[in-house]
Amino acid sequence: MKAYFISMEHTSNNQNSAVKQQPRLSRLNPANWSLQNKFMLGSAVIMLMCCLVAAIAIYYHQKKELEAQALARSELVMAGVEASRKYVREELRPRMYELMGEDHFVREAMSTSYVGRAVMDRFAPELPGVRYRRVALNARNPEYEANIIEQDMIDYFRKNPEAEEWQGIVDHDGYAHFQRFKPVVFESECLHCHGRPEDAPRELLEMYGSEHGFGRSPGEIAGVVSIDMPVQEALSQVKERAVSVFVVVFVALSLIFAAMGILFNRIVITSLRGLLKDFQEATGTQPGDHGRDELGRLGAGFDSIMQELHDSRSKLQNWNRTLEEEIARVRQDLENTQERLVHNEKLAALGRLTANITHAIRNPLTAMGGFARRLEKTAQKDKEREYAGIILKEMRRLEEILNDIVVFSQDRCCTDFELHNPREVLQEYLEEHRDQITGQHIEVLFDIAPDLPRILMDRKKIHLILDNLISNSMHAMPQGGQIHITAGSSRAQNGQDLVKISLTDTGPGLPEQVLAVLFEPFTTTKDHSLGTGLGLPLCKKIMEEHDGWIEGENLPDKGAAFYLYFPLPPENQA
């Protein structure tokens, strides 16, 4: 038991220790630092980078100046040696050949390489540390045979014939040296002593033999001239200057850094904390996540307000859009109502006029019809009977025209609306007129959904629409064809649920000039003896009485199509 209590106590201590360590670990996360800490850290990094950049810039600038000074000294040395060699080559050696002949060779007076080295040997005490070398591959004197570095430089100049020299500071055994190399290019005048052994002076062959220093050709790079100067001490001074600059700049920026920290805390941090406090008091929000800095918490508050503003703006836009749609709908309803009132007034006036006209025409028309039928029965000759039949036929057509005018001019109050299934109404009409339709070699295709909703319809007037449309299709297909009747659910652009009845045929279609005025009164594609031009306007009027509409078009392949749109009753709307 004692051991158990000790174990429990140890576990409890570990948990408390872990809880205490969590805030410490949280403070180590940069995301949880305060704005001042982030600013100070960023400023410290920038300060350190400025110090490093300044020190590195000073170092490379001083190093470039050191190289320039070393180059100037090497140029003096090389110019002096080259001047002595040029004097031997252009003045002394030609004179010696004139005095002694071509077979004689005095090395101390006629060898430009020897004279150049001798001059530098005498310069050496005046230029401590400066080493001059003129070396070659397969040199006559083994002492001046090119070493590995010099062989590499010869290869470099051979691969880069356009290069006139190479220079730079290199490290040898931990010491910095400035080195400068120039290629040795053999010219035609050099071949007397370095071409074929048999062409060389006899005394030269006796002195060096015929194995080394021969076989050169014009333009060949077979050696280099080099200057080597120790610059370790000067380079160390350059590094010391760079370090001094780093220290001075670091100290100066540290003072500026400390002053900036104090000013930043008093000017920025204090103002931000006051602003954050005022913001929280004004909005009634809590301080929020303490892991963020002051700007983070302030930004979170602004984000919250911006989100609320955005949501409010979206709601206002939606309300405005809904209101605009409602206003547009009401305006359209008012315009439609106004148009309907004007139209009804016109129809009422037309109805009164047509009622008087038809009453005035029908009385004599009835009498004329009675006499025509009597003449047809009492006619003795076939010609008289034929004329009486023509009179009766034209009188019946006149009666149909009068009936169309009466129906077209009637007001909506004469409409008898009832709930009907569109499928049943269409089937009823087709059953009644099947013989008439099939008698003209017309095939009717019937494709109507069985589950169509019931809609308000005046069955007789819908039959009148079908009479007009099917009659037009039959007239357009005198040799026979197909009429396809379909019905199904549809939806208007404003979202209103509809029942759509389509009637298409395989005739030639409607003339393009008629499509624009298809539903205007007295517009017809038939002969005036066969049509009144009131059929389609009457269909349009009946559909408007049903709060629907009718459309007509030509099919892409062949034939015409008419579409009847009926709105669903309010109780059937989705």
From TrEMBL:
UniProt cross-references to InterPro entries, sorted A to Z: HATPase_C_sf (IPR036890), HATPase_dom (IPR003594), His_kinase_dom (IPR005467), HisK_dim/P_dom (IPR003661), HisK_dim/P_sf (IPR036097), Sig_transdc_His_kin-like_C (IPR004358), Tll0287-like_dom (IPR021796)
One example GO MF annotation: ATP binding
Reactions the enzyme catalyzes: ATP + protein L-histidine = ADP + protein N-phospho-L-histidine
SMART domains found in the cross-reference section: HATPase_c, HisKA
EC number of this enzyme: 2.7.13.3
Transmembrane feature ranges: 39-60, 242-264
Coiled coil region boundaries: 313-347
Keywords: ATP-binding, Coiled coil, Kinase, Membrane, Nucleotide-binding, Phosphoprotein, Transferase, Transmembrane, Transmembrane helix, Two-component regulatory system
Gene3D superfamilies hit by this protein: 1.10.287.130, Histidine kinase-like ATPase, C-terminal domain
Keyword flag Coiled coil: yes
Domain Histidine kinase as annotated: residue spans: 356-570
Annotated protein name in UniProt: histidine kinase
Natural source organism: Desulfonatronospira thiodismutans ASO3-1
